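Appendix B, example 12.
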Amino acid sequence: MGSPDPLKNRLSILTIFYNHESFVDSYFLSYQQIFGSLPCRLLVVDNASSDNTRQRLELWRKKSGFQFDYYPLDTNDGFGVVHNWLARETNTPNLLFLNPDTSFSEDFISPCLEVLDKVGGIVSPLLRDDTNKVYANFSPFFDSSWFFTKKLLYLAYPLKEIQEVDWIQGASLFLRRNEFLAVGGFQEHFFLYTEDMALGRDYLDLGWQSRVLKKVWIYHPRRDISTAKFDSMCKNLGHYFSHRDPTHYARYLQIMALIGRIPFSWVELFEKSVGLRSEE
């Protein structure tokens, strides 16, 4: 079943691979099973992988209907930098930033694009993990004075069909290209992690809301946050909180540590990164 040609003129999908050899086949098989081939222009970057990701990508490029634009890079310049470059490379009015470790078993593109056409901003499906359980791919802004309240509301109340949220995890983001370029794209000093929160804040500052669709979902592995990953996040959060109040999120981390959900060392990492605790 092929997709109608108008979609090819309306949307570009942008995906960055980095050591994702084990996900290449499931990523492309999703398109094959649902659409028969690529439904629109696909721009793929390999961000200097050291495994066999490039070989797997080159095999898929040889298949009929999968002639995507391919950019193998010699250096890993980071998530934000490369996405910004790809957004400038294409000229379709809409973009989909789609992680390489996602897969899908139904057409999630059409309903998300329909909402994006109506309201703009950032639109995303929900995510299901390896056990088929839906998990929250959205959060309050870390600097929000309503952080605790919104966290509880997200847990306690069922989502609306189209739910407005503060920001969305960057596994699958639909955006209008002109809006993305208007906010300056991703902030490029974020190499990886929390750049999606900064983007959501930049969008909201210009009056553009983020939304998730309750009945539309794709698969994406749920990953635990390691201390090394949290350390990387804190380096980025130092940028994010350079002109924002970090105390609300610091209190949240303190509570999480007290109830045993995270190590106390994470509280110290965060507080040092945002200037709430002096370096020893």
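The longest strand covers residues 210-219. The chain has a mean pLDDT of 91.
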